[in-house]
Amino acid sequence: MPESGQKTTQGNISEAVSGVTGTPGGPAAPGLAAARRAGLLVTLVLGGLTALPPLSMDMYLPALPEVTGALHAPAATVQLTLTACLAGMALGQLVVGPMSDKWGRRRPLLAGMVVYVLATAACALAPTAETLIGFRLLQGLAGAAGIVIARAVVRDLYDGVEMARFFSTLMLISGVAPIVAPLIGGQILRVTDWRGVFHVLTGVGVLLTLVVWRFLAETLPPERRHEGGVGQALRTMRGLLADRVFTGYTLTGGLAFAVLFAYISASPFVVQEIYGASPQTFSLLFGLNSIGLVAVGQVNGKLLVGRVSLDKVLGWGLAVILLAAIALLLMTSGVFGKVGLAPVAAGLFVLMSAMGLAMPNTNAQALMRTPHAAGSASALLGTTSFLVGAVASPLVGIAGEHTAVPMAVVQLTCAALALACFLGLCRPWRTAPEAGTAQTGKAPDPAAQSGKAPDPAAQSGKAPDPAA
């Protein structure tokens, strides 16, 4: 924070960056320095927080037919338990993100985790489908705390290329969750009924809550917290959305996430119903695609970040996603005649792997513009992704379960729109970002538009200077 003592919502982008990274050569704040020294432990804790929502969604999937019979409810009603959890995760981020900017990261996170544990335990006791839907909504609302605060903590601790590297590392952990969750759920159902899935999730929630309480230090010092209530939070979000570049990265990430959602929603029908693959083959292909995403994410973090600009890597990723979506549309629409599963599976693998270049870098670029509104910015990023994905995923089945063309059309449309938002709003050919108008409403800092290289301190990834 600048020495003038102004609130964190004031000042230009250079002041905001200095409030996060500290002055060159200045000592790091003790709590933040200790948190960053923890390294692997912090990575595991934050990875666990980001993996909990996909575990909550995907571990439950194998139990859906059993829930339908046990609660004497139609399949459409039981499907609403998934929709409720997804909607809760989207909306909960809008609430918890601003709370973490006002009260710090630990208290809202711990409160969310406690509510998550109670809601998950209640799911295991639900007597009717309607009750289960309500508890799943509450579970999603509370579980959103882990997603949004994990991103905000990364922003508190890191900046520049270090932040992009850390997001790629998180993808290694959180990317495994969708692979193993259905397998774990299936094994649980071998020894117990569907309620046992929620018992296991309750235990995971308790363990993660204790780990957060014991090992995750507060990363947002009091002098960098926001004052005010709901009105201030809404004004902050309005200011964030007024920043053209931040909005561009947010929409780019949300639309890229919609491509992923379309794949998740359609792939079981495409692979098994249209191309006649067995469930085991589908599981193998699903796992390979997830491994591709994680592996490319690690290439991004370990090899590309710091050597190639984040915008250039992001542009490459979006271009590959678009080309893969075009190839999938040509194959599924019969332009090349009747094609088998192998070419379509190859196209899906390339598309999914390229997500490892797009997703971490959109998060990093957006959050780099919002150093003192990281919670609210993280909330907008997450909510946009979930809402756009929720709109896109039902469209893949608009023509029934016997054609893959709708999936390819949705993926191509979202990929093209993502690239258009990136080029039209982010304008990556400009070498320096505009001033932090998302937080300040002031005119851009002339130094920020001069085309000069960023201040090394702003890219160092250092913890905040306590004097700031």
Describe this structure in words.
It is globular and about 65 Å long. The chain contains 18 helices and no strands. The model is unreliable at 1-37 and 431-468 (pLDDT under 50). With 468 residues, the protein is mostly helical. 73% of the residues lie in helices and 0% in strands.
Which whole number gives the mean pLDDT?
79
Strand tally is: 0
The SSE order reads: HHHHHHHHHHHHHHHHHH
Number of helices: 18
Helix amount, in percent? over 70%
Strand content: under 5%
Q: Compute the separation of the termini in Å.
A: 5 Å
Q: Which stretches of 5+ consecutive residues score pLDDT under 50?
A: 1-37, 431-468
Q: Biggest β-sheet, characterized?
A: none
Structural class category: mainly alpha
Alpha-carbon Rg, integer? 22 Å
Characterize the overall form.
globular
Keywords:
468 residues; mainly alpha; 0% strand; globular; disordered C terminus
In short:
By secondary structure, the protein is an all-alpha fold. It has helices spanning 13-21, 30-38, 40-58, 64-70, 75-103, 106-125, 129-157, 160-174, 177-191, 194-215, 230-242, 244-274, 279-304, 310-332, 341-368, 374-395, 405-426, 437-440. The N and C termini lie close together (5 Å).
SSE layout and pairing:
Layout: H1 13-21, H2 30-38, H3 40-58, H4 64-70, H5 75-103, H6 106-125, H7 129-157, H8 160-174, H9 177-191, H10 194-215, H11 230-242, H12 244-274, H13 279-304, H14 310-332, H15 341-368, H16 374-395, H17 405-426, H18 437-440
Helix pairs in contact: 3-7, 3-8, 3-9, 3-10, 4-5, 5-6, 5-7, 5-16, 6-7, 6-10, 7-16, 8-13, 8-15, 12-13, 12-15, 12-16, 12-17, 13-15, 14-15, 14-17
